[in-house]
């Protein structure tokens, strides 16, 4: 009888963890990406109102040269607003 209770407890814990992870992933997919203003607030370490390549991360870092249309080495609010939107996976 103790073995059955043990296996039931393990199964319950496993299902709970799977349920939490699934819910969390669904919530993240439903979120809107941050605005250009929010991106600058989050990443602008030196607070100069623009982002250098050292300050950015994620998809923006990968596409830095595409977004930096004036090729000055910084992303401005205007450049971020006009940046191509990242492609999202299918839901």
Automatic annotation (TrEMBL):
The keyword Signal belongs to this UniProt entry's keyword annotation: yes
EF-hand domain ranges (all copies): 55-90
Signal peptide (UniProt feature, chain positions): 1-25
SUPFAM superfamilies: EF-hand
Record keywords: Signal
Biased composition (Basic and acidic residues): 41-65
Span list, region Disordered: 23-65
Pfam families hit by this protein: EF-hand_5, EF-hand_6
Name this polypeptide is given: EF-hand domain-containing protein
Organism: Zobellia barbeyronii
Taxon lineage: Bacteria, Pseudomonadati, Bacteroidota, Flavobacteriia, Flavobacteriales
């Amino acid at each position: 009888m103790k073995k059955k209770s043990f296996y039931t407890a393990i199964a319950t814990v496993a299902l709970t963890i799977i349920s939490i992870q699934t819910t969390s992933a669904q919530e993240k997919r439903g979120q809107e990406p941050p605005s250009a203003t929010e991106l600058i607030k989050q990443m602008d370490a030196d607070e100069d109102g623009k982002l250098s390549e050292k300050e950015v991360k994620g998809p923006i870092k990968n596409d830095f040269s595409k977004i930096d249309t004036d090729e000055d080495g910084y992303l401005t609010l205007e450049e971020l607003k006009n940046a191509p939107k990242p492609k999202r996976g299918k839901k």
